[in-house]
C-alpha cells in the first residue's frame, strides 16, 4: 500500500491550524502547511513541510502545494483581510486575482466562495476544519453559567435578527445587545475589537449578550464563527452577562478552558438552536 496522501493546510493565525496539524499528523497522515505571511506563525509548523507566502504570491502557494502532492486542503486560522493595493501580486497572482473577479471587492463570504471555485478549478478539494478535527462544533446546550432569563433571551433573539441582517449584507457574524439595544456590530475589525469598544457603551442593569451566528447560506468550509478563551475575556471586560452562539455552526476553541473561564466569571455560555429563538417564541 502506498503512502497516505498529505493534507494541505493554509494557515492563518491562532491555534486552530496548529491543532489540526497535530491531530492529522498523530493519525498517521502527512501534513503540509502553507503559512500566510503576517498571519500565521511559521515556527509553529517546524515539524512539517512548510513554507510562508505573502498574499500576492498565493498562485505560487498553490503550485507549491501541488508539488508536495496535496489534493485535499483545509483553510484555518484568523486572517486580516488585506487591501487590494497591499497585495503586490506577481504575474501569476494577477491572473488568479482576475479569476476571483469582483468578489475580491465584496464581503468575506463572497470572496470565500470565489476562492473555493478557483481552488476547485485547480484540482483541490477543500475540507472544513470540523471534518478533520472532531468536537469543534458544539450541539445545542448550556455549557456554563445559569440559563438565560427572559431579558437575556430577548437580547439573544434580537441579536440573531441583527446577525441575520448583517449576514445577508455579507458584513459580519456577531453583535452585542443589551436590553434590546444594539451596542455594537461586528465588521472587518473582528469580534475581539468589537468587544473592546463595548465597555464604555454599557448601560445600567444586567449586562448585554454577545451573539454569534452563521451568515444565511454561508459555506461551512471556512470562516465559521469562532469563540474561545479570548472571546470570554473580552466579554468579561465589556461587562457582558453571557455569550450565545449558533449550535453546530460555531467553532469552540480550547473547549475546556473556554467553559471554565466563563463558569469562573459567572457568565453563561450558550450554544443555541436558532429555531428556539424565532420571532414570537417564548421561553
Automatic annotation (TrEMBL):
InterPro entries: LpxI, LpxI_C, LpxI_C_sf, LpxI_N. Residues 7-135 form the LpxI N-terminal domain. Residues 141-269 form the LpxI C-terminal domain. It holds the Pfam family LpxI_C. This is UDP-2,3-diacylglucosamine pyrophosphatase. The lineage of its organism: Bacteria, Pseudomonadati, Pseudomonadota, Alphaproteobacteria, Acetobacterales.
Amino acid at each position: 500500500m502506498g503512502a497516505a496522501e498529505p493534507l494541505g493546510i493554509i494557515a492563518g493565525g491562532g491555534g486552530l491550524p496548529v491543532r489540526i496539524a497535530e491531530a492529522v499528523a498523530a493519525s498517521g497522515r502527512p501534513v503540509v502547511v502553507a503559512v500566510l505571511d503576517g498571519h500565521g506563525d511559521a515556527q509553529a509548523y517546524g515539524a512539517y513541510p512548510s513554507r510562508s507566502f505573502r498574499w500576492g504570491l498565493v498562485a505560487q502557494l498553490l503550485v507549491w502545494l501541488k508539488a508536495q502532492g496535496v489534493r485535499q486542503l483545509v483553510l484555518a486560522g484568523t486572517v486580516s483581510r488585506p487591501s487590494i493595493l497591499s497585495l503586490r501580486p506577481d504575474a501569476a497572482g494577477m491572473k488568479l486575482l482576475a479569476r476571483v473577479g469582483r468578489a475580491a471587492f465584496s464581503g468575506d463570504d463572497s470572496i470565500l466562495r470565489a476562492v473555493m471555485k478557483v481552488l476547485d478549478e485547480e484540482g483541490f478539494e477543500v475540507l472544513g476544519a470540523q471534518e478533520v478535527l472532531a468536537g469543534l462544533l458544539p450541539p445545542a446546550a448550556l455549557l456554563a453559567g445559569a440559563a438565560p432569563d427572559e431579558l437575556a433571551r430577548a437580547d439573544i433573539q434580537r441579536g440573531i435578527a441583527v446577525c441575520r441582517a448583517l449576514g445577508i449584507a455579507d458584513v459580519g457574524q456577531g453583535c452585542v445587545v443589551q436590553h434590546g439595544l444594539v451596542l455594537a456590530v461586528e465588521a472587518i475589525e473582528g469580534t475581539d475589537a468589537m468587544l473592546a469598544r463595548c465597555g464604555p457603551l454599557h448601560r445600567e442593569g444586567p449586562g448585554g449578550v454577545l451573539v454569534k451566528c452563521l451568515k444565511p447560506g454561508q459555506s461551512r468550509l471556512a470562516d465559521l464563527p469562532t469563540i474561545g478563551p479570548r472571546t470570554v475575556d473580552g466579554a468579561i471586560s465589556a461587562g457582558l452577562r453571557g455569550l450565545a452562539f449558533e449550535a453546530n455552526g460555531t467553532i469552540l476553541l480550547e473547549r475546556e478552558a473556554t467553559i471554565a473561564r466563563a463558569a469562573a466569571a459567572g457568565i453563561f455560555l450558550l450554544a443555541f438552536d436558532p429555531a428556539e429563538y424565532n420571532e414570537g417564541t417564548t421561553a
